[in-house]
Each structure stands twice: as C-alpha cells, then as structure tokens.
Design a protein that fits this description.
The protein has 203 residues and is mainly β. 0% of the residues lie in helices and 43% in strands. Strands 1-2-3-4 form a 4-stranded antiparallel beta sheet, with no helix packed on it. The chain is globular and about 45 Å long. The mean pLDDT is 88.
Length: 203
C-alpha cells in the first residue's frame, strides 16, 4: 500500500532522540549554517520545578542524537514568567512550550517560545499565555543567548511559528485563545522585521 500524507506512519528514529531520562515535548528541528542538525525541545516542568529549553545534536539521518544537551533557557529566570498550575497533575512550576527558530535578515538567530506571564507585565499585561523571544547574536545554537524584555504576544495566545506567504509577507501562526482549553483555533497575524526585532502588525 503506498504511503500517503495521512499515513500509515511507522517509527523512523531508533527510539527517542531526546535523552531517555528526561520528560520532553515540542521538539523542533533546526539545521545550522554548518549543516549540523539539531533538535530543540522543552524539558518539562512536570519533571522539574523549572521548565527549560534545550538543544541536542542529531545524526545526519536524524535517527539518533549524540553529545551533551545545551541549555538555552530556564523559564524561572525570566522577568515576566509566572508559575503555572495544572490541577490534572496537582503540580505547579515554570512552563516552557513551543521553541521555534528564525534567522533574521542579518544573521541573528531568534527563538520564539511560550509560557505564562505575570499580571501587568508589558503593554498588554493580560497575564496569560504569551510568546517571547530569545536571541543568539552569534547566530549559533551554542549562544550566548539573551532574552528580550518585551513580549512578542501577550494576548492569551501562544505556541507559535513563523512563515512567509507567497507574496513574501511574514506571518505568525499562533493558537488563540489558550483558555478556555478546547477553544483554541489557529490565528494568523502579520509580522514585520526591523533591525533584527519582530513586531506584530495590528490592522
């Protein structure tokens, strides 16, 4: 039977490519300028009090990872994050979601990611699900990574990615609203890049 976009699917990698002792989610593939392949992923706050985003190298065929993981960020160290509680698991901590890599026009490497913001932080101050930006001015996964003080989105929306339309307009795709859960729908907003910084265009 020929394979279609709808499957059937079967395992490709030789087991998990994230470290076996870690609880992980939201793995994102990235290939750097040296053709080195990486998996960027979240080390879950359900295992640690402080959610983290890490990266690990992949073999050329993507079947295995190798080397030591690199820690890109720790959500508890951000100025704007607040603890998240999930009654389903009776635990609270600093959440990390949805790393997405983007290269600016002059070579800075940005990473979009999501967590929950404190009330009255930034212009919107909604205290909800957000999209933040980390940046590696070297353009390398190894960093050094810094973190923008302003949030890209603070509108009860997050878990985002970027893409360009056929007419080269940059868009962010995000799910909105985050709460109430079960009501999430894709939301597409125009984005502009100026001096290596991204901003959402509000029509």
């Amino acid at each position: 039977m020929p394979t279609t976009r709808g499957g059937p699917y079967k395992p490709y990698s030789e087991g998990a490519v994230t470290p076996k002792h870690l609880e992980c989610l939201d793995g994102t593939f990235y290939e750097d300028n040296q053709n080195q392949k990486w998996l960027i992923y979240c080390h879950e706050w359900t295992q640690e009090y402080e959610g983290k985003i890490k990266a690990i190298r992949l073999t050329s065929n993507l079947k295995k990872s190798f080397g030591h993981e690199i820690e890109i960020l720790n959500a508890a160290h951000m100025k704007w994050t607040r603890k998240f509680r999930d009654p389903r698991i009776e635990k609270e901590g600093y959440l990390t979601d949805a790393p997405f890599m983007y290269k600016t026009n002059n070579g800075e490497l940005l990473m979009l990611w999501s967590s929950y913001s404190r009330d009255n932080f930034g212009k919107e101050g909604s205290g909800g699900y957000t999209v933040a930006v980390a940046r590696s001015k070297s353009g390398s996964i190894e960093g050094e990574w810094t973190h923008d003080n302003s949030l890209l989105l603070d509108k009860n929306a997050g878990h985002s990615s970027l893409f360009r339309s056929f007419d080269d307009q940059l868009y962010i795709c995000t799910h909105f609203p985050d709460t109430p859960h079960g009501q999430e729908r894709p939301l597409f907003l125009k984005v502009k890049e100026l001096n290596n910084h991204l901003s959402v265009i509000v029509d």
